[in-house]
Design goal:
By secondary structure, this protein is of the alpha+beta class. It is built from two helices and ten strands, in the order αββββββββββα. It has helices at 12-29, 176-186, and strands spanning 45-47, 50-54, 59-70, 73-85, 88-103, 112-122, 127-138, 141-151, 156-160, 171-173. Strands 1, 2, 3, 4, 5, 6, 7, 8, 9 and 10 form a ten-stranded antiparallel β-sheet that branches.
Amino acid sequence: MSSRRERPGLNRPLRKILAVGLSLVTMVMVAPAGALPDDRDQPIRIEADEALRDEKQGFTRYRGNVRLNQGSLQIEGDQITVYHDDQQADRVLAEGQPASMQQQPDPEKGPVKARANIIEYFKSEERVQLRQNAHIEQDGSIVTGDTIDYFINEQLVKADSDKSRGDSRVQVVIPAQAIQRESEDSGTPDSE
């Protein structure tokens, strides 16, 4: 049975709540694309216990309580490696127990907070990937899983569980006030 077809067991209010939930999860994940306009124009500041730049291999590795800031973007980890091609960073890898990332997407919304053992940004693909104990949150909406991919240009979010482990599941938490706000914004009462 196609997932696009209406399921006979789902009543209209439940379908609406599920649709609102999925749209809120998407809103949480689209934040990096809509970051504050001046973030990209801000200097990048990095603090670490040690740094190693390898021109031949094309990377700079920072170790020990690493903090990277650029405007509202903050990344922290035990180690951050910046891979570069012709002086431009094309991939950033943050590792920690966990590594964390935070960015203010919009002055009107709360910051997006993400954490995972591995956070990787692929510039050419415009993709951020959270791996191992992935968690992302904004305004009380939370998505967790083993892997979370966010494709910035497509505004596409994909959360996966480790299918080899029976206890691994993707989890989504949507606060009640967010569902109520979405219902009010759509102008449709919850009882439809």
